[in-house]
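re: ur question from yesterday

yeah so i grabbed the chain u mentioned. its 331 aa long if i counted rite. heres the sequnce exactly as i have it in my notes:
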Amino acid sequence: MPRESKSTPIGERLGNLGLGDKLKKVHEQPRALDSVTEEDLPETVESRPNVLDIPLDQIFVGGVNVREIDDTDPDIAELADSIQASGLLQPIRVAPELDGYRLIAGERRYRAVKMLGWATITAVITDADETQRVVEMVVENVQRKDLELWEEAEAYKRLLNLGLSLGEVSKRIGKPKSTLSVILKLTSRADIRAGLKSRAIPSWSMAKALNPLLDEDANEYEPGAMAEAIEYIRKHSPTVLQMAEWVRDRKERGLHQEELKRRTTTSFLKREVDHFTDLRTRQLPKLSHVERQALRELLQDQIRYIDAMDSTNGESSPPTPSVSSEEEPNG
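ran it thru and got these structure tokens back, copy pasting raw so excuse formatting
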């Protein structure tokens, strides 16, 4: 497609895009942009834009877009074929910077045009400040279905780093504050980011199902629970509902164990727990078969005694079990 120079009237250049009779009056009657109404212009151009053909070598790419894009992406080649056949239907957006322009929106279009060997590209020039530039970039990107969750989170972090509150980001992006909060929390963990990138965690919905395992600071309620969850997904490929149920069960087990741990922190119980731990790890291996049998009977007797206490709600004490000295294990 032939390229027009900067001096080509905007009406003629837009007419060359195939807009037909609707723009004929703009082509035949050059006017100041102030006199062109929205009906005279395509939907992709604002009512009073500063539209120019800009040399590609004057455009700085990077520093704004959070999407991971490179020239080897097959989608870029497909887009280049489309632009070659139909022209560039939507200008990119840039902002003046130093002796050139900073690309704000349209990196894929920029790379496709560059792949075609064009020297210039049609661009809408905006005087947006840094905050507005990032907002434009984020809005454009989050509307794309192929934006990865960690890329989306990086965009939100940039807005927060510019001084916007989470509520302000929510309003500008059009997503609930609670959703943004969960995205930022989950993607702050290296294990979840790695799981998303490797597809061990296949979707945002699946990642969200893991959220109950974490506190507000993205720390696990119980160490190791997240690794168990990711491994469960990898091995069993559950649905989101099945994973949510697994997380509930896992959390309940963890809370139960935590409660048992809390209840054994009294001095008496702690001593008994320490005693049995020592018995199991150090003493049992030294016992003979006969001694282990005697210990088993002793412990079973103690369990029956506790069960009897529970059956009477502690109102009466059953006979205290007695153990002869011959039954006591050597320790």
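noticed a couple things. The CA atoms of residues 32 and 229 lie 63 Å apart. also The first helix runs from residue 10 to 19.
anyway ttyl
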